[in-house]
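Budget justification, computational time. The allocation requested in the original proposal was used primarily to generate structure tokens for proteins on the priority list. As evidence of use, we reproduce two of the resulting records. The first is shown immediately below.
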Amino acid sequence: MKFYNAYINQYLKLFNKAGLKVINLEKLPQTGGTGQFSEGIFAVESKIPRENNHVFTRDHAFKLVMDYSHWRPNAKLVRNYINKSADTIDWLQALGVHFEALLNNLTY
């Protein structure tokens, strides 16, 4: 829950400043969704990892997510989330959000 609370306010302020309206749809019974289990931000094939020679492909990320969750999630939704993750980070950076690094600690 700490990740969700720490970042959602920052993002909402930036979105509001940019004149954007935000809606948060929650599938789980408690606020935070799977963000309450997050340990960092997710961006496959975004600019920062590429600049650091960190190669982690969208296909590999998709397989890891789906295998980890035993192929229970909606595969099209997971694929879309992964495929748009780099664009989302680029968009947040354009709004002024600063990221130190977007590298993971997974061994694969």
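The second record produced under the same allocation is shown here.
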Amino acid sequence: MSSVLSNPGDLSHLGALGDLQRAVDRANDAVRAYVAEVEGELRRCGGAQQGARPSWSDRQSATLADLQGVYLVALQALWTASKELDTAA
């Protein structure tokens, strides 16, 4: 598999493959940011209810699933393009 997956670094010379890597990175950042946001909300809200473990709402879980889906689609596209590049080489 192409080194772009294991060592993204400077991707300017990779064109579309670099664009895909950046899309994967942005999607991963969005998932992490959303998880941090929800976990922060849960900690703030859960502090008043001792003994009760706060949990994600259905809306929050659905949003996270959507964000993870975008990440997986971007990752699959990068993986496929990288594999095709390796095959062509």
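A brief technical remark on that second record: The CA atoms of residues 20 and 32 lie 18 Å apart.
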